[in-house]
Amino acid sequence: MSHLHCKASRLGILAGLFLSASLLSYSATLLAADRGDIPRTANGKADFNGLWQTIGNHHWGIEPHNARMGPDPQWAAIGAIPAGTGIVDGGHIPYTPEGRAKQQENQANWLAKDPVVKCYMPGVPRANYMPFPFQIVQSDEHIIMAYEFASANRIVYMDRPDFEAPIPSWMGHSLGHWEGDTLVIDVTEQMPDSWLDRSGNHHSEQLRVTERYTYLSQDVIQYEVTLTDPVVYTRPWKMTIPLYRRLDQNAQLLEFKCVEFAEELLYGHLVKGAQAQDEE
Amino acid sequence: MSSQHPSIRNRLSLLSLSLLIVVANSWAQDEHYSAPRTINGQPDLQGVWANNSTTPLQRPEFFQDRATLTEEEYQRLLARAQEIETEGGDALFGDGFLNAVISGEVESYDPSTGNYDSSWMASRNIERRTSLIVDPPNGRLPAMRPAARELMAQQAQARRDGPSDSYTSRPLQERCITYGMPYMLAGYNSYYQVVQSATHVAIIQEMIHDVRLIPLDNSAHVDESIRLWHGDSRGYFDGDSLYIETRNFSDASIFMGARGNRVFKEKFTRISDDVLQYEFTMEDNDTWERPWTAIVNYTHSEDPIYEYACHEGNYALEGILSGARAEERMAAEQAR
Q1: CB-based contact A166 B328, cutoff 8 Å
Q2: A179 close contact with B: CB closer than 8 A
Q3: What is the predicted ipTM?
Q4: Residue A3 gets which letter from DSSP?
Q5: Strand positions, DSSP E, B51-111
Q6: Which of A177, A121, A127, A146 is nearest to A51 (CA)?
Q7: Number of other CB atoms surrounding residue B145 within 10 Å
């Protein structure tokens, strides 16, 4: 083998390595679509119908976090909070100083302040990585996302790009469109009260969410979501997390209405005799 | 409900200003009508549908065995309905409308606070039918079993004895848990949206943001031990209709006295571009001496479904309970 040939081969290998590295995530994204073997509807669109759920501990914290003690010692190990590597691109949310201070205050008073503890609807994107499944029912004009937690749901309008949100809402106003095989949804007009996780991460009423759903393989969707909010973040930032199809036998969306599990917390002090018991 | 956004009130007010009454001369099925098909070949039932019928569930005794109004009665109904609308006053949801027309007496939906006036009312559809119930032929609910009647009486007594002792003393809808399955109240946010895929039908109910998911895959129901507020549904298309069977209700999911053992069968048929005919049969041998069947004509709506964020703004429940405790404290102080 000549020296020149050897150098050319090394360059080739290096170029190959470079290409491999730079295209790693890109190729993973395109792989399923390139092969053309993703599920498709009768009119050829990517078919996201199904029951989906994330895996991991991201609902506890979307930023990197250690394991920590849970709120109730009675629950000991099974009530403790597991560690997580986080799903925020770059690791941490680019908060303004005031935004970060509020997050820390929220976290310090998590149990009292987290709206989900009271069974309020989680908002978007939090609903997508709660530890509960959600069902997508997809037609040409509408995509329904029905979440098990709190029977929250949203209607994604695929054919009404100019439809303005009639009112602010907990699950926001979702307008979708297709970019090739990627479903893109813009979510606006969410209530400012919802959080992003159980670590106090938050937003204002100016939050704008852009979601991108792309098949990685037949049973895995890459979910990329960009959050823009000039009030509490210094720049738009992104999270990336896979959604897995629930393949377990008999899997289906069940009920977790959850109001009935929050009533004692919210109204227990107003039940007849409760104050007398407290005084004793 | 206190949680409703003011703009929804505005929407309803605008509707009430325009015209409350939609006259339906005939809801009979056009034999030549065939529902359009979806891309998957199913009858296309999709859209937003409203239950704004003025026809009561049970036939008022005034009509005896007659299933439809005479022409004279119908014209009198229209005229009287117009008068009631012009007079304003309390809102007439559900069966209250026809009852008010027949009896001449308006029974308030909310006599305790009177906070529902006619601006809350959506357009109501006036039909010639005298009851939603089509079977038994007398248009009335079958006789209840003695045990079911006794249970209902006990529950009614408990409500009278301590209506606000606890949050569990209050009705399920006030607690933002469920408006029942099926939700029967007409003219009060009674909107549904149907969305179809190849494998599922989703029926979005505006009240308390519920979505019913109906698998079309002929799979078995969930295990008998799983009990649900809205039951476990399975469905299929046959001809122009969607058929659904729902079971696995929880005992707490009470519908007119029926509990966990009821089997609920539904048939949805689009009988014109603007009418989705909803027929259901309630089978519950524990509760009634025989099954009964009703038909509701849902009408097409151009409006979208709104998010009914009930629990998130449920200040009323806190107010009811704290008010009751305050009354108890006052009574105790006066007794000293």
Answers
A1: no
A2: no
A3: 0.87
A4: H
A5: none
A6: A146
A7: 16
